[in-house]
Amino acid sequence: MTRGSDTGRLARRELLAMPDYLAHERSQARRLAIGAAWLVLLALSLLQLLEYLLGHDGDRVGPWLLHAVWRLPALLTAVWVLVLAAKRPEGDWPRPLSLLLGFWVMIAAWGLTALHLGGHEVQMHEALQRLVITTVAVSVLAVRGARDLLPICLPGIVLGGVLLWSLDPGPARALAWATHPLLATVVAAVIAELLFRGNAQAFLANRQIRESALTDSLTGLPNRRAVDDALRAAHARVDRHGGHYAVVMADLDHFKRVNDTWGHAVGDEVLCELGRRLRAELRANDLAGRWGGEEFLILLQDVDADAAWRAAEKLRVRIGGELFVTSAGELPVTVSLGVALSRGAPRPEDVVNRADEALYEAKRGGRNRTAVR
User: Fold this and answer.
1) Inter-residue contact 106 to 188 (CB < 8 Å)
2) For labeling, which of 90, 297, 305, 354 is most exposed (least CB within 10 Å)?
3) DSSP state, 283?
4) Which of 50-80 are b and which e, b meaning 16 or more Cβ less than 10 Å from the residue's Cβ?
5) SS3 string of 265-296?
6) 3-class secondary structure for 125-161?
7) Neighbour count for residue 330 (Cβ, 10 Å)
8) DSSP 3-state assignment of 371?
9) Is 351 exposed, middle or buried (0-12, 13-18, 19+ CB in 10 A)?
10) Whether the Cβ atoms of residue 84 and residue 97 lie closer than 8 Å to each other
11) Which of 327, 330, 336, 325 is closest to 360 using CA atoms?
């Protein structure tokens, strides 16, 4: 196995482990399943009606009834898809039902083709053409690429092989009949894999764009837009379920002196190191973001006033207790912090404003300290 194939396999596993990609995949599979279900329902019903009208002869049962038996599972699966789409639009059914729908469509296609093998030459070629077109068309239902096409196409191929063997057409004729459907399966696998990879690349590109739009390019922390979104979400959660959140405003003390003395490049190093220390000290459900310049906002979830103050003090000691290593040498850096608890604030902006007032109080009190409002 080559190194490249290992990398590709690892990338696929990592992709399918991403919750946001799986949600994206469900959404895509839902759209494809609904579209395919309507197409199957309308097309097969119309074909069945035409065959009945053209092939029904008094009390004699024509081939239309046998065709209906082959098509019925695909029709019922299509109805099932549409019912689930209406009743459970957010369920996990889209991919399994897409595969099941494709499976029954291919079973019907192979079964109907086998009925015409050995019959009239024109009907036989028309049946093979429909099988080829159907095989290529179901590739869109394989949302995870060629691997998803296996359960869709392989049972139909096995069924077709058994039916072909029962007709005993001879090796040459059997090969002639099977060549185009098997080539169509290969083409369908290539199409399914290209669609999967193209969709994955588009998802990752869009994800990177979204992350770039919500990430501070210098520190790697969430930017002000992302912090605003998190604040609104936290406020809405508290309004619905109760509890509190706290906002901590942190500002580097005498940061202008750092820039004026050692230059903006060293100032950027200090900001990056501050961001790293903030991330290291926070819980998984808390958030630290760059609010602007040398000012940072920390969102603490599910805390009371004492817990918020202790968390802010821990940050202050962690930041000021160890020199910052920069290209200009080791520098002493401290921060002032202002803490505000949500406690009944009508808007998240009100909590931020109180934290800002507490920050200015800490600055006026001599810096390198924590104030609470």
Assistant:
1) no
2) 90
3) -
4) ebeeeeeeeeeeeebeebeebbebbbebbeb
5) HHHHHHHHHHHHHHHHHCCCCCEEEEEECCEE
6) HHHHHHHHHHHHHHHHHCCCCHHHHHHHHHHHHHHHH
7) 10
8) strand
9) buried
10) yes
11) 336
Q: SS3 for 209?
A: helix
Q: Is the pLDDT of residue 30 over 60?
A: yes
Distances (CA, A) of 279 to 33, 44, 124, 219: 42, 58, 68, 11
Question: Do residues 196 and 203 touch, judged by C-beta distance below 8 A?
Answer: no
Q: For residues 79 and 158, give the distance between their C-alpha atoms in angstroms, rounded to a whole number.
A: 26
In angstroms, the Cα distances linking 147 to 12, 91, 191, 193, 206 are 12, 22, 12, 8, 25
What is the predicted pLDDT for the residue at 127? 83
* 120, 167 Cβ separation under 8 angstroms: no
Give bridge partners of residue 247 from the DSSP assignment.
299, 340
Determine the residue type at 362: A
The one-letter code for the residue type at 263 is G
Place of tokens 């821990």: 314
Kindly report the number of other CB atoms within 10 A of residue 340's CB atom. Answer: 26
Query: Of 151, 284, 138, 196, nearest to 15 (Cα)?
Result: 196
Question: From residue 59, how far is each of 45, 49, 51, 55, 56 by CA, in Å?
Answer: 22, 17, 15, 11, 8
What's the average model confidence in pLDDT over 66-72?
Answer: 90
Beta bridge partners of 340: 247
Which residues does residue 290 pair with via DSSP β-bridges, in sequence order? 296
| Distant-in-sequence, close-in-space partners of 361: CB < 8 Å, separation ≥ 6 | 338, 371, 373
Strand partners, 295: 251, 292
77: Cβ contacts below 8 Å, ≥ 6 apart: 37, 40, 97, 100, 101, 104
H or E segment and range at residue 346: none
Identify residue 142 by its one-letter amino acid code. Answer: A
pTM metric for this prediction: 0.69
Q: What is the pLDDT of residues 258-298, one digit of tens each?
A: 999 999 999 999 999 999 999 999 999 999 999 999 999 99
Tokens for 99? 């595969």
The token pair that represents 10 in the structure block: 């690892």
Would you give the end-to-end CA distance of the chain in angstroms?
62
Q: Specify the pLDDT at position 1.
A: 39
Write the DSSP symbol of residue 323: P
